[in-house]
Write a structure and sequence with these properties.
Blueprint lengths: L1 H6 L11 H11 L7 E7 L6 E2 L8 H12 L3 H27 L2 E2 L6 E4 L8 E5 L4 E3 L13 E3 L3 H27 L4 H18 L8 H11 L6 E5 L5 E5 L22
Parallel strand pairs: 1-5, 6-7
Antiparallel strand pairs: 2-4, 3-6, 4-5, 8-9
Helix pairs in contact: 2-4, 3-4, 4-5, 4-6, 6-7
Length: 265
């Protein structure tokens, strides 16, 4: 955990738990002011934000209708692309927290906030300041006394906690809600989660410890999504993501075939 200690000043308890995540975001994108995430991840003033739980109810039609207006596709294709965007940004802090420092923000639907005010993005995701963070016993945060820190026994329990929070408590209920509005298979939607995880870790690879390919395999296995993507050599031999399901972007009025799309010849 030497790398974590180097980037994490424990004397700043307000930002310490997620410092490795914001540092990795800045390394990936050159900034942590991104169109899909709250600047710095944490929402200090919740005015204008609503809990992500609203996406399984009152705010879901707003998300889906906004996607139709943005892309002009069929309702189910637009829903697939809205999901692809939302699930990428929602999962990103969790994925990077685990990969960079074995710190997992527990992004169940009560800890995540959203708004639709940023015209650069379909939806913006933020984290409550009180969001729990799961860590290993060897993490300096385990002895910090911070109330939001949840210490787990080992790597296996950390991965199980990640899955329970991100997939079981957050993304799966939203998948069910989307399927109540449009006809679309869970495998199609989960394929975007798997692809987003793999793409995020490959993009962040230079700033992550250890093998990025092993990290992708470990995380997708924990989420039970490993069969939905494959890492294949790119033009220069670098690993790239090959999907086994389609996000349906090729059906838009202005069709797009994404890199790694399963329909690419």
């Amino acid at each position: 955990m030497d790398q974590v200690t180097a980037v994490l000043p424990l004397q700043d308890p307000a930002t310490a738990p997620l410092a490795p995540v914001t540092a990795t975001l800045r390394a990936m994108f050159g900034t942590d002011d991104l169109p899909g995430l709250a600047p710095g991840l944490l929402v200090v003033d919740e005015a204008g934000w609503v809990p992500a739980t609203t996406l399984t109810g009152a705010r879901l039609p707003e998300l889906l209708n906004s996607a139709v207006r943005l892309w002009g596709g069929t309702p189910h294709a637009s829903a697939a692309l809205a999901w692809k965007a939302y699930s990428y940004w929602a999962a990103l802090p969790v994925v990077l927290g685990w990969a960079a420092a074995r710190r997992v923000p527990l992004l169940d639907h009560t800890s995540a906030l959203i708004h639709f005010a940023d015209q650069r993005a379909l939806v913006t995701v933020g984290l409550r300041e009180s969001i729990p963070v799961a860590v290993l016993p060897s993490d300096p945060l385990a002895l910090s006394g911070l109330p939001q820190v949840q210490v787990v026994a080992d790597e296996q329990e950390l991965l199980a906690t990640l899955r329970a929070s991100l997939l079981d408590a957050h993304l799966s209920p939203l998948i069910a809600a989307i399927q109540g509005e449009v006809r679309i298979g869970a495998r199609t939607l989960l394929g975007s989660v798997a692809s987003g995880v793999a793409h995020a870790l490959l993009r962040a690879a230079d700033g992550l410890p250890g093998s990025t390919v092993e990290a992708i395999d470990t995380l997708l296995d924990a989420l039970n999504l490993a069969d939905l993507v494959e890492l294949v050599p790119g033009p220069n031999g670098e690993p790239t993501v090959q999907r086994r399901t389609c996000c349906l972007a090729f059906t838009l009025p202005q069709p797009k075939v994404c890199q790694g799309c399963c329909i690419r010849s």
